[in-house]
Design a protein that fits this description.
Number of helices: 8
Shape: globular
Number of strands: 7
Distance between the termini: 45 Å
Largest sheet: 7 strands, parallel
Radius of gyration: 18 Å
Structural class: alpha/beta
Bound molecules: NADP nicotinamide-adenine-dinucleotide phosphate
Length: 257
C-alpha cells in the first residue's frame, strides 16, 4: 500500500482522469475526497469508492466553495497529504471566431481556479505533502483552435515551478502530470458517436509513437508515483504521459515507411 495513512483531495474526481486516480489512491490505502460540480456523478463515484471516500460539490472557480470542500475533507480525514488539482475544461477558441466568454472561462477554470485551490489547501496540507497539477501536451503542440487551453496549460507548468520554489521550505512538492489524448468525456462532440470515437482514436493512434490513445489509468498511475514517496526527490517537474507524442513525434506511425 503506497498511500497507507495518507489523505488526498482530487478536484474533478467524479469523471475521467480524476475518478481513475481516486480509484487507484483508495486501492493504495488512501482516504480520498473528490470534488466537482455534478452532485449526481459525485455521489455515485463516492459510493463506488467506498467508505474511505467522501464527495463535496464545489465549483473550482468558486473560491469560497473550494475552501469549504477542503475544510470538510480535513475535518473528516485530518490534514491532507496529497492534492491533485485536476479539474479542467477544454473549450475551443479558434482565431476568428473565439468568444471572450469561452476564452475567459478556460483561463478561469484551468489556471485561476488551480492557483486558488492550491492557496486554499495550504493551511490544511501537512509539511512534506505532494501537490500535482494537471497539464496537457496541448501546451506545447500548437493544436489549432486551442489557444486559450494551450495557454492555460502552459500557465499551469509555469505556476508549478513558482509554487515549488515557494513551498520547498515546507518540504511540499509541486509537479505537473501532462497527459496526451486520453479516453475521457472531455473530447465532447469529437467522440460523441461510436463512428466519431473510432475516427478520433485512429487519428490519435497514427500520430502517437506508441500507436494508441491513452487510458485514464495511464495518468492515474503516474499521479500515484508523483503523490507517493517513490518520487520524494522530484520537485517542480512536468511529466508527459503521451505515448511519445511530444518527445518523439517522428516515431509516430504516420511517419513510418
Ligand atoms: P472529464 O472526464 O471531462 O473530467 C473533467 C473533470 O473536471 C470532471 O470531474 C468535472 O466535474 C471537473 N470540472 C470541470 N470544471 C469544473 C469546475 N469548474 N469545478 C469543479 N470541477 C470541474 O475530463 P478529463 O479528461 O478527465 O479531464 C481532467 C483533466 O485532465 C483536465 O484538467 C484536462 O484538461 C486534463 N487533460 C485531459 C486530457 C484528455 O485527453 N482527456 C489530456 C490532457 C489533459 P463536473 O463536470 O462535475 O464539474
Amino acid at each position: 500500500m503506497r498511500l497507507a495513512n495518507k489523505a488526498a483531495l482530487i478536484t474533478g474526481g467524479n469523471s475521467g482522469i480524476g475518478l481513475a486516480t481516486a480509484r487507484v489512491f483508495v486501492a493504495e490505502g488512501a482516504r480520498v475526497a473528490i470534488t466537482g460540480r455534478n452532485r449526481v456523478t459525485l455521489e455515485a463515484a463516492a459510493e463506488e469508492l467506498g467508505p474511505n471516500a467522501l464527495s463535496a460539490v464545489a465549483d473550482a472557480t468558486d473560491i469560497a466553495a473550494t475552501e469549504a470542500a477542503i475544510k470538510q475533507a480535513a475535518a473528516k480525514f485530518g490534514k491532507l497529504d496529497i492534492l491533485f488539482a485536476n479539474a479542467g475544461i477544454a473549450g475551443g477558441t479558434p482565431l476568428g471566431s473565439a468568444t471572450l466568454e469561452t476564452f475567459e472561462n478556460v483561463i478561469r477554470t484551468n489556471i485561476t481556479a488551480v492557483f486558488f485551490t492550491v492557496q486554499a489547501a495550504l493551511p490544511y496540507l501537512n509539511d512534506g505533502a505532494s501537490i500535482i497539477l494537471n497539464g496537457s501536451v496541448i501546451s506545447v503542440l500548437g493544436n489549432p483552435g486551442y489557444a486559450a487551453y494551450a495557454a492555460s496549460k502552459a500557465g499551469v507548468r509555469a505556476m508549478a515551478r513558482v509554487m515549488a520554489s515557494e513551498l520547498s521550505p515546507r518540504g511540499i512538492r509541486v509537479n505537473v502530470v501532462a497527459p496526451g489524448a486520453i479516453r475521457t468525456p472531455i473530447w465532447g462532440p469529437a467522440t460523441a458517436t461510436p463512428e466519431a470515437e473510432k475516427a478520433f482514436e485512429a487519428r490519435i493512434g497514427r500520430t502517437t509513437p506508441l500507436g494508441r490513445i491513452g487510458e485514464p489509468d495511464h495518468i492515474a498511475k503516474t499521479v500515484l508515483f508523483l503523490a507517493s514517496d517513490d518520487s520524494a526527490h522530484v520537485q517542480g517537474q512536468e511529466l508527459f504521459v503521451d505515448g511519445g507524442a511530444t518527445a518523439s513525434p517522428a516515431g509516430a506511425p504516420i511517419y513510418r515507411a
